[in-house]
Amino acid sequence: MLTGMRGLAGLTGILAAALHFAGALKSTPPGAAMPVDLTAMAALGLLATLPLLVAGHHWRLDATIGPPLAACGALWLWMVLAGAWSPSRGILAAKLPDAVLLGPAMLLAGMAVAGHPRALSRCAGAALAIGTFVAATIAWGLATESIVLGGQPGSSPELLRVQYQIAGLAIASAAALAAVRAAEARRWAARIGWLTLAGLLSASALLPGGRAALAALALALAAAPAIVLWRAGRRGVALLWPGLVLAAAAAVLLVVQSDPPLAAGLRTLERLSQGEVAEASGRLPLWRAATEQGGAALPWGLGTGGFTIAAGHGERRALYPHNHLLEALAEGGLPGFVLWLAAFGGGGAAAVLLGARVEAERAARIAALTLPVALSVMVSTDLGNRMAWLALGLALGLGVTAEPRHVPALRQAGV
User: Fold this and answer.
1) 162 - beta bridge partners?
2) Considering 4, 108, 320, 397, which has the largest number of Cβ atoms within 10 A of its Cβ?
3) Angle (CA) 359 362 363, round 5°
4) 233 exposed, middle or buried (CB, 10 Å; 0-12, 13-18, 19+)?
5) H/E stretch holding 403
6) 222 neighbors 199 (Cβ within 8 angstroms)
7) Is the distance from CB of 329 to CB of 296 less than 8 angstroms?
8) How far apart are CA 111 and CA 166, in angstroms?
9) Cβ(383)–Cβ(79) under 8 Å?
10) For the chain, what are the domain ranges?
């Protein structure tokens, strides 16, 4: 029975990773060529295994995650209520189910995966494999001129359109996980091998064009391995490691700024050399509009999905504020702002506190999987994005512990 449960947990972890990075997988030629939708396939698989995993275990929740979980529930309820005065119909009908129906399911899945050692181990392993696969296929696609990085859908029908932001997040998590494996390795050969893979993945992050993903890479790569090093008593290396990562990133940017032609072919660096990042990406006008429109609609906000209409963009969901906090303020008013801070900000604070108490390998893997998404929600995605809710579930899962159902019974019997 234990073997079967371990296998079920491992499968659940793999499916969670596949669903988390389904957008990146669909940006690869093999993923795009599949006759079925990878997102739907992973979601259906997770829907089949997750209830069995939950039913087959006894779950203990740390009190620390109680307030963020309560804030999540209140935020979902407030989004439903705020839909009553929203001027939107199309965006509201699409966004609300994503947030209040899919969001809780993703949160639960993340918590279950993070709370079960086998599930988390397989999830991290699958994420490492996915990121490596995505990096290799993008490099090959660019070399063979068979893909296009971003652009309008259908603008180049003969080429595969890569969702470079999501691909960059997958690569960032994979690079951080490889560096974590290097920090954990006992032999120098293994350390060098994992560091080489982390370096190659970091270099491949310069190809897709996602500037936020590059920042996410630096954040995850600096933080996740340092957790393992610090907890292993290698304090000097732990303190030095983030500095080395950030220094390497700064050196690359400095070289490119001093000689922009060096960035030729490296789409991420080409976009960085264009000048003002926030203005060039179009985010700054959206942030300004969210602040202005949200301020004018206080205290209750514009209503769920109402930002794009108020900003003059019509029913175009893609022109969301590109910042969860500003979105919560603009559409949910002061209640939405406070509840988002309590849910996501409180979840981050709880993860830091709990991460200091759980096993180092567990905390490091969750950091590698969640930090890229944590940065992404401040510059991209809306509140209906499943990656945000799954990442929050993983972070809160640091306060969850799973045991097979027969174990508590044996302990009560004194066996």
Assistant:
1) 149
2) 397
3) 85
4) exposed
5) strand 400-404
6) no
7) no
8) 22
9) yes
10) 2-260+286-412
At 206-231, the pLDDT tens digits run: 776 567 778 899 999 999 999 999 99
160-191 in b/e burial notation, b at 16+ Cβ within 10 A?
bbbbbbbbbbbbbbbbbbbbbbbbbeeeeeee
Pick from 264, 341, 332: nearest CA to 294 = 332
Residue 206 confidence (pLDDT) = 78
Q: Considering only CA atoms, which of 269, 243, 244, 246 is closest in space to residue 258?
A: 269
Task: Classify strands 400-404 and 57-61 as parallel, antiparallel or unpaired.
Answer: antiparallel
Tokens at residue 262, please? 């060096």
User: What amino acid occupies position 356?
Assistant: A
Residue 18 tokens read as 């596949």
User: Is the predicted pLDDT of residue 118 greater than 80, yes or no?
Assistant: yes
Q: Where are the alpha helices (DSSP H) in 144-266?
A: 164-184, 188-204, 211-231, 235-258
Crossing angle of helices 117-143 and 2-20, rounded to 10°: 40
The DSSP H or E segment spanning 114 is helix 103-115
Query: For the chain, what is the largest distance between any 2 Cα atoms, rounded to a whole number of angstroms?
Result: 72
**Among 281, 300, 294, 302, which Cα is nearest to 91's?**
302
Closest CA to 179 of 217, 234, 137: 217
Report the C-alpha dihedral over residues 224, 365, 394, 343, rounded to 10 degrees.
-10
Rounded distance, CA 368 to CA 383, Å? 21
Write the pLDDT tens digit of every residue in 44-78: 999 999 999 999 999 999 999 999 999 999 999 99
Beta strands in 50-185 (DSSP E): 57-61, 147-149, 160-162
From residue 231, give the alpha-carbon distance in Å to each of 239, 244, 282, 367, 394: 12, 19, 41, 14, 20
- Residues 202 and 409: beta-carbon distance below 8 Å: no
Q: Which of 66, 155, 49, 63 is nearest to 112 (CA)?
A: 49
